[in-house]
Amino acid sequence: MHCLRQRYGGNLIHTYAGTNMVVINPLSTPSMYSEKVMHMFKGCRREDSAPHIYSVAQSAYRNLLTTRQDQSIVLLGKSGSGKTTNCQHLLQYLVSIAGSTGKIFSAEKWQAVYTILEAFGNSSTAMNTNASHFSHVVSLDFDQAGQVASASIQTMLLEKLRVSRRPEGESAFNIFYYMMAGADSTLRTELHFNHLAENSTFGIVPQSKPEDKQRASQQFTKLQAAMKVLGISGDEQKALWLILGAIYHLGAAGATKDGDEVGRRQFARHEWAQKAAYLLGCTLEELSSSIFKHQAKGLQHSTSFRGAQDESGQGDSSGSKVTALECLEAMASGLYSELFTLVISLINRALKSSQHSLCSLLIVDTPGFQNPRLAQQQRGATFEELCHNYTQERLQTLFNERTFVQELERYKEENIELALDDIECSTSRSVAAIDQASTQALVRTLARTDEARGLLWLMEEEAVQPGGSEETMLERLFSYYGSAQGENKGASQLLRGEKPHLFLLGHSHGTNWVEYNAQGWLSHAKHNPAAQNAATLLQDSQKKNISGLFMGRASGATVLSGSIAGLEGSSQLALRRATSMRKTFTTGVAAVKKRSLCIQVKLQVDALIDMVRRSKVHFVHCLLPKAEAVGGGGEPRVTHGESADSGLMTLDVGLLRAQLRGSKLLDALRIYRQGYPDHMVFSEFRRRFDVLAPHLTKKHGRNYIVTDEKRAVEELLESLELEKSSYHMGLSRVFFRAGTLSKLEEQRDVKTRRNISLFQAACRGYLARQAFKKRKIQNLAIRCIQKNIKKNRGVKHWPWWKLFTTVRPLIEVQLTEEQIRGKDEEIQQLKQKLEKVEKERNELRLNSDRLESRITEMSSELADERNTGESASQLLETETSERLRLERDMKDLQGKFDTMKKQMESMEMEVMEARLIRASELNGEMDDDDSGGEWRLKYERAIREIEFTKKRLQQEFDDKLEVEQQNKRQLERRISDLQADNEESQRNVQQLKKKAQRLTSELQDTKLHLEGQQSRNHDLEKKQRKFDSELSGAQEEVQREKSLREKLAREKDMLTGEAFSLRQQLEDKDLEVCALNLKLDQLEAELQDLNSQESKDEASLAKVKKQLRDMEAKVKDQEEELDEQAGNIQMLEQAKLRLEMEMERLRQTHSKDIENKDDEVEEIRQSCSKKLKQMEVQLEEEYSEKHKVLKEKRELESKLLSAQDKVRSGDMETEKRLRKDLKRTKALLADAQIMLDHIKNNAPSKREIAQLKNQLEESEFTCAAAVKARKSMEVEIEDLHVQMEDISKTKQALEEQLSRFQREKNDLQSRMEEDQEDLNELMKKHKAAVAQSAQNLAQISDLQAQLEEALKEKQEIQEKMQALQSQLDFQEQSMVEKSLVSRQEAKIRELESKLEFEKTQVKRLESLVARLKENVEKLMEERDQRSSSEIREKEQNKRLQRQIRDIKEEMGELGKKEAEASRKKHELEMDIESLEAANQSLQADLKLAFKRIGDLQAAIEDEMESDDNEDLINSPPGRRHYYFTRSDEEEEEEEKEGGATQDAYYSRYRYSSQVKDDDSEDRLYETTS
Fold first, then answer.
1. What is the DSSP track for 600-659?
2. pTM: predicted TM-score of the whole model, two decimal places
3. Which residues pair with 151 in a beta bridge?
4. pLDDT tens digits for 303-323?
5. What is the pLDDT of residue 487?
6. CA 387, CA 1529: separation in Å to the nearest integer?
């Protein structure tokens, strides 16, 4: 408490409590939820981050990525504690950090979602100005990369009655006030809101304060903007506003209180009802009939089992009558429920996506604990508040189960003794008081029983029972859960209130007592047809925008039993969630009670808990700092500028302490600190932390197979040098104290970083060595190029070489045109292949869609079969309990029958004794007086009386016996029927289980095949994208080539124009040269004339010769430069030839690869078609097998009925036969006793009998020994069966390992294929670069040819210019005019500038060639790397094949062992058969002995028959009585004897009775009588 107060005072509202997070709702809006704070928590572990709601989201997201298991975050707390706000923060963090494909899920979209939910599902209460009145689950589905692939929202427990009825001082849903304040004039006119009603039956009136109206108008504008963000069109928005306006007008219309004079139910103000009917698109008569007609017929409770509805309807007709106002409220609530479900469907439509998802993260937000007393309200809580409190209790129970129950059970399973101080793991008893179900929930009865059941079940029963009321319901509830006399308040969670309809229920383990008012609660358990007619009214609306929305939604299963909305979704995870919820509503009691309005509350919460229980749960406890924290309009009490002391004073310590005790946070923290919260399986721990002990790895080797995981983990822990108290070794996992595992994780991270650094260093060293090798190769290439240049200098003046260099560019032009035509043809072929691949992809997509639909159908069928199986099993359990009860009754009746039988026997004996005594007395009197006839008459009369009495007693006994036998037969018949039903249901259950297993296996196979098809589709799409990129690149290359050709043509035209101008200038120069020649001739003539003056001009002549030599030296230098340029050009042409040859070779290999890929695509398509056909054949076979199984089931049922009839008839026959055997055995016993009395002194017969007895005992002993031997053999056979099962299990495990290796092999092959595709792509790039270099070389050759021509022209011009220069010099000396010289010098300078330009162009082309060479070398290196990686993949594939071969050898050995075991089994079976044969022979000997005994008895009886008859006739009555009594006493002595002798006697008499003939049997019966 001190820690929470200190942190809250410092504005730190988040605190860790073990694995849980505690958040105290701040009274102001803190600035701790910015985007900068989000990035601080991104990628962090929980141990490294501060307490924050983002830390919970990051922990759940991290667990989802590492374990690939579904996660869920559950928020618990009171109303107004900030659960919805924290839910928004969680979603904002997950969407911002995880991201989504294409950024389709943004924070703006989720803000829009919550804007809509707050408008349609929130309202103002005394505890919270913006309280939620529905529970919802936000599901985020993530793909393989950890991005959000799709999302959905499921809602439940909506307070739809808040539209028409709510507690005093609270408002309706926010949307009504937003719409009335923010609607524009057009919308107001359309909704008839220009003149609002002064009062409303529903209490929906406009807000009076201007600031409230302004705020509501702003919220309506924000709501419309949010709907646009989610893609809700204008027509859809208009449909929503029309339905809301109709609800408002229905409230304004009202209803008559007790009907009119005739008793009809109708509207109070028909003009407002007319407006509502117009907005809904129906007539007033249709609206009135949907609300007020057929109420008495439909308002029956439909949740009883089978025929209960009619019975309840006939019981009390007055209870089903409802008022017109209740009908109107039911219609309004039904309309709003349909509207809310439509809004959720539109939101899910905007959030769904067709991308493949891997796992989900669920965020559960429910309304908090509601307690009006906490808000200083003097009223009882409503039924809706009870439902919300019940939901919070169930979530708290889930927290206790995960925190205490499962943890303690895990300690117990792992044999960990932990002394925890007074930690209670019991659940809250208030949950049982609300939802405890009866064990006879499926029994067809309507009577009230004394079995305890919860409030929801009592409401349902009282609504059905005639005369049921809230008072009787509460009395029954108090009788089940109320406190007894003398108990205190804490002993019971249910107490009576001060008023009759009030009761107190202690929530949160008795820390939160809420007073409820049960007045009118039974109306929640009764169906009102007006609410059901709302959906029909909207679907049949005349307005297309309304009927279109609701007709489209009626075709899909978006609502589950009218309770859970938002089940639409096409992704696999969404279908799985929907199937889980439907299973909750269709199994067991839910299948019968799902239509009950009360039981729906429990079923909705069960579905929520079941969905959350399937995932890893993270709990966030939101605490309320003060009772009036958000009251009074939500004005903040404390700002950030206040001191910590003032912050401490804002906490209500008592309220905070009660919340902590109710949530069991202290106990959770105690078990977290004293126990072992972190645990890992041995194998997983060793595999994860093996890197911390490298010496163990070196010791055992990397491929060491661990046989004892526990021992290996102990060695690892000893090497880590952990404290003994920080961990504990269980049976299957190792447990750690809090914080120990995080330290190990940190050490592992350090070690991993070091290993990665070493790995990077090794990689960099390898790359450096490869670069050095590359440099060496480059050096060798440079030397080769230099050698080729030297060779080229030797042939540069060869005329044929000059001819070759001149003709080659002309051939290149023709070749490039042919290449362009070839490229165009290749483009056309590639386009055709693209169309073909597109068609195949569409076909595969259609097949995959069909398979997905088939999978969904099969999954739904499987769910239905499971549900029917579970319901059948539950019915079987009820029938089994009934059968046990009948068996107990039958045993009681059998005991009574036995006592009656004994009484009858005693009475018969008494009558017989009385008769004998009477006869002896009469005989004595007759001896005294033989002539007395009076005594004879008395004797005869007494005899007749005795016989009559005997007959009467016998008749009574027979009647009673017959009655008891009839009862017994009836019980046996009923037991046999129940047993037959039980066996049949068990067979059906077994068949359904087998079918479910087969369907699940087929479903898994289909899913695997579908995943394979999807991966192949993905590969084909990848190939298509690559092909599209290559096609676009080829088209760009063609365009570039065309542009280059046009550019070269323009440059050629320019050069031809320049050449023409140069030719003209040359002709002019020739003319000038001719003129100069003429002048030169003249000057020579003059020179000859002036030879005399030669001596005078020698100095000038020497000067001219010097200039001439200088000019010749310059010309030679220029010629050498031109020779060097020509050599470079030849070298480049050779490189061009090599590149062209390489390009041709690569093009051929590329064409071969394309053909191979086409063949592979064709094979894939054929295999896919074959597999699809196989799946279709399998589905047809399954369908035929299903029909065959049904047919066999019918035949077995008919056979079972006939067998039952045979068994009944056989039972009667066996009973008669056993009775005869019993009488015969009694007679034999009496005769044997008489015979033994007569021949008591006959020793030889006794010896024979003793010998026979000894023989019989020996035969029995041998038989017992044979039986023991047989049992031992059966035990050995069972052991062999167990060994066979173990061998089969190991074989199955090896087969699974083989399949896993096969999958790894397939993965490696797929990776090799991807590497091959990347290599092909690099080769294509290389070819494109080579083609580009060829084009550049062609341009270079053209420019070089032009350059050579220009150089030749320049050389000729220079020669002419030299001659002219000499002449000009001579003429200058001889005073020639200077204008011509200046003109020639300008032309020379122009030609020199052109020469410089050509030189720079040549240098630029040389640099371009060097760059292209570097690109080619890079591509070659990448190709080498790809080839090396391919070699490594092949080696790995070989290693996997070797492993597979070893596994196959192991499987062969196991097969040999299995054959050996089967051989041993066969030998044992032969031994058993021999023993059975011996046993049969012994039994034959035994029968022979019995036969001899029977013959001996028959002989003795024949000898003694006459003597016995004479003795019986002549003996006095007393002696005869002695024989009778003696036989009875001997029978009693025989019953007291040992089991073996008695069994032997009975068996002997039984066999003797079978041997005797009919005459002996008749004699025996006569003797007995």
1. HHHHHHHHHHHHHHTSEEEEEEEE-S-TTSS-STT--S--TTS-HHHHHTT--HHHHHHH
2. 0.54
3. 140
4. 333 333 333 333 333 345 678
5. 46
6. 75
